[in-house]
Amino acid sequence: MIHSTQKTSFSRLLGALVVGLASSFALSASALDSVKFMIPANPGGGWDTTGRTLAQAMVKAGAVKNVQFDNKGGAGGTIGLAQFVNTSKGDGNAMMVGGMVMVGGIILNKSAVNLSMVTPLARLTGEYEVIVVPAASPIKTMKDLVAKFKADPGSVSWGGGSAGGTDHILAGMIAQAVGVDPAKVNYIPYAGGGEAQAAILGNHVTAGISGYSEFAAQIKAGKFRPLAISSDKKISGIDIATLKDQGIDVELFNWRGVFGAPGISDAQKKALLAALETTVKSAGWKEALAKQEWTDIYMAGDGFAKYIDDENKRIGDVLGKLALKK
Predict the structure, then answer these.
(1) Which residues of 196-214 are buried (b: 16+ CB within 10 A; e: fewer)?
(2) 191: Cβ contacts below 8 Å, ≥ 6 apart
(3) What is the pLDDT, as a whole number, of residue 204?
(4) Looking at residue 261, what is its pLDDT?
(5) Cα(310)–Cα(265) distance, rounded to whole angstroms?
(6) Ranges of the chain with pLDDT below 50
(7) What is the distance between the alpha carbons of residues 299 and 307, in angstroms, rounded to a whole number?
């Protein structure tokens, strides 16, 4: 025989168990069975690292059960984008990694496909750019570099990644902000970070531009002198003044994000957004951000879609003034 107080306790326990089981079932039921990531770049690069790191965090957070990857590099990501647009229509389990470089790649390659043809899901991470000179350079400050640049634009060579990429765009934005015709930017593109670093160390270029992580080791070793960082405010732990703090009204970060397939339903989009929301709040994703030294700039759904539209206008304007948009 169970006394009334015992009955009450038993009922509460049973109720708690039912709620717990229901919650567990809801969590497993809401997890996506599988996601296939289109990574529009070769293995090992920034988009590849982003996609694989995100996928790992999604599985760890219980947001997805299985993941697959398809790498298709070339033409600033537009080859992979074209394949994604043409083969994934209506597929609620397909996602593509992309970012700022793809916005420029679409413009420069006069791509027949663009980001309006896919479903913007979320901006995830960003990396700010840093401007450096060799430690032995007579240029000591950003003010010195700008003075030389304004006096004779061609005398300042800027070394960075591919023509029309984030590094080149930043050089154009700096030119525009200080009153120099962006078409006069003397930009020297290099195929990889190693080549660019060697060129800077060898005094083959006046200044170098890249994501902070690319130059961090040389800065810490005292081989590069950082002049400015392109963040909107001073970054904790990085003792580099922003461009804005030095009177140059420019901010820029190389953002990376994810997109859904063309023509997915509202329900499919909501499921993908829910999986991403679960992931970005997880300890695994936060650990990954710290490990990769990525800045968290998460923005999802309609806000991200508007951001893409704004980026298309801003980057298109700069590329046009750099005389690259033919």
Answers:
(1) bbebbeeeebbbbbbbbeb
(2) 162
(3) 96
(4) 98
(5) 25
(6) 1-11, 13-29, 326
(7) 9
Helix (H, G, I), strand (E, B) or coil at 224: strand
Largest CA distance in the chain: 97
Pull the structure tokens for residue 127: 């990396």
Tokens representing residue 297 in the block: 């700039």
Pairwise CA distance, residues 192 & 1, whole Å = 78
Alpha helix stretches (DSSP H) within the chain: 4-30, 46-60, 78-87, 100-108, 142-151, 166-178, 193-201, 212-220, 266-280, 283-292, 302-321
Angle at 122 between CA 173 and CA 255, to 5 degrees: 25
pLDDT one-digit tens code per residue, 236-256: 889 999 999 999 999 999 999
Question: Residue 213 has which token pair?
Answer: 């992580």
Q: Is the dihedral of CA 90, 92, 94, 98 positive or negative?
A: positive
Quick one: which of 253, 203, 254 has its CA closest to 225? 203
Q: What's the pLDDT score for residue 30?
A: 61
- Distance between CA atoms of 129 and 207, rounded to whole angstroms? 13
Q: Residue type at 126?
A: G
